[in-house]
Amino acid sequence: MSSLSRLDCRPCRKGDAPLDPQAARALAREIPDWQLDADGRRIERRWVFADFAAAFAFVGRVAEIAEAANHHPDISFGWGYATLSLQTHAIGGLHQNDFIIAARCDEIA
Prior knowledge:
It is a single chain. This protein is an alpha+beta fold. Helix content is 36%, strand content 17%. It has one domain (17-108): 2-Layer Sandwich (Gyrase A, domain 2). A hairpin with a 6-residue loop joins β1 (35-36) and β2. It is globular and about 40 Å long. The two termini are 12 Å apart.
């Protein structure tokens, strides 16, 4: 269990600074299955499932986590896969909240 998953998401607003690339890389070490994009503004992970129903069930659990935290990933899914992408749109980059949600999604996968 990542220590990130035990943290609470905090509201952020336009004007808050996104994480700098060094800080994003440090947090990404706690969620090693996620990919940090080259400019350090987004993280993404893809899961493979046995079938559509399993992928759909996972996406439903992710939705519950996201709603509870009021922090929502971009989700793509289909037969046997789900891909989550996280960034904080309000600040145009990554925030600690993105890593918290990623860690929580890892726990339910």
